[in-house]
Amino acid sequence: NKKHGGTQHWVPWSHAPVIVAPTGGCHAPRYRRLCCITCTSSLLFTLFAAIVAVTYFDQQHNNIIHEYVARNDDVAILSATFYNRSKSFENNTVILLLNAHQVLQLKHSELLGISTNASGSMKTSFRIFPVVQQIPFYCKWVPFIAVGQVSEGMTSLTLSTGEKGMAVPIRRPYSENHDVVACFSPLFLNERWQLLLLTAEVYSYYGAAMHFYVRSMITDLFLILTQYRNTRVQPWPAVRLGSKRANSVEFDPNIELEFRNQAAAMTDCLLLHK
């Protein structure tokens, strides 16, 4: 309302002054187009950068694989287990446990061998399988198993990937049966003896067999573990390549193995107690 000389006059709402905020007028469509162009350009740039990055990574990965496939490489045989009778494998089967570069399967789908018994020799091929299906790209060396059938009553085995052969010592799995077998990953130093002894006491109380893989350990603790019933303590040394090697002398495969070769140790325990 308005006051005129003390008299109040009511002004209709339709005649009241209205303040309208500026909306940009004809400039609003221009801002929208600019925003759309900016967002589209950013999206295209991000997509282009992603394509370039993936292409570069793929080229680097292919170059690495090509480099290792083209050159010779070392293979470390950890064990060879002979099953003359088994529920899991065919009769007269040998399982090789080995460490090698992760592209071993690209180089060799199988290893060649010759098994010998009292009657003569027989050629054998060992199919190679990775122990870990999801191979970590950051670890150059990984564990494999190679499965092959040998001659019955085998006395010796020679293995090769080419012209030269190498004699492989053979072992047999344990014959005793256990309801539960606890396999312990490679231990080193193990100064926390309280935890280890408590674990051993609990497993022993419930009748489980224990298989320890040891890299290094305090002498007194080692002697205590050997006193438990149904317990085996097996050394698990680092992989040592000899003087005749494909890689340079500076290359240390233990740096390229995951968790002190833990997957290979667990596989070795399974093969022994299977």
TrEMBL record:
Q: Where are the transmembrane segments?
A: 34-57
Q: Which UniProt keywords apply?
A: Glycosyltransferase, Membrane, Transferase, Transmembrane, Transmembrane helix
Q: Which organism is it from?
A: Haemonchus contortus
Membrane topology is: Single-pass membrane protein
- Report the locations given in the UniProt record: Membrane
This chain belongs to which protein, by name?
A: Glycosyltransferase family 92 protein
Q: What is its EC number?
A: 2.4.1.-
Q: Which GO terms describe its molecular function?
A: glycosyltransferase activity
Q: Which domain of life is it from?
A: Eukaryota
Which Pfam families does this chain map to?
A: Glyco_transf_92
Entry similarity comment: Belongs to the glycosyltransferase 92 family.
Give the GO cellular component terms, alphabetically. Answer: membrane
